[in-house]
Amino acid sequence: MASCYTFPMEKLIVASKNKAKIREVTDILQGIFEVVPMADIGIDADIEENGQTFADNALIKARYVFEQTGMAALSDDSGLCVDALDGAPGVYSARYSGDHGNDQANNDLLLHNLAGVKDRAARFVSAVAVCSDKGEWVATGVVEGHILPKEEGNGGFGYDPLFYCEEIGKPFGIATPEEKNAVSHRGRALRNLVTQLKASGLFGKGE
After folding, report:
1. 77 belongs to the catalytic site
2. I need a labelling partner for 165 at 20 to 30 A (CA). Which of 62, 67, 122, 134 fits?
3. Which is the catalytic residue, given 27, 46, 76, 77?
4. What is the model's pLDDT at position 202?
């Protein structure tokens, strides 16, 4: 299938319905890509995330949108991995409570499962994928921290109010978007992806 776009890419269709995630991707890639939510081009599908890893799921979603549109597509799959829970919730982070996308229910269950646990080390992990007629790329990013005993702040989304980031010395729930994006798993994965695209010789915008 021929693509409507060739590299250097100027437009990426984001394979997500999560408005907060799309906003972060847009902010991080500002000046490099024009980021377009898939809803803006008429895609409203609930893409099944049945991969075993974050990278698997990122590729599944990006491939779906690319195959449906012929346009270069980007997807992020990310989650929280807690040492004391053997890496859970992991790839099930968004549906940890059984109710997909219910941040409060997910946070409540996480706190319940960590009740009385002293070692609360955790990390956010992100895998981002781009699929286009020129190939596929995957990059990852990680940020270390620990889980607080209660939520702090109402910034960000998901588990952010429970995640204390060691690098900035505060929870993501009270960090500014600029502070979070500078160190976040998603920010690191996206910047690593841009580096890969530049190294491929197929990427020119933003040079």
Report:
1. yes
2. 62
3. 77
4. 64
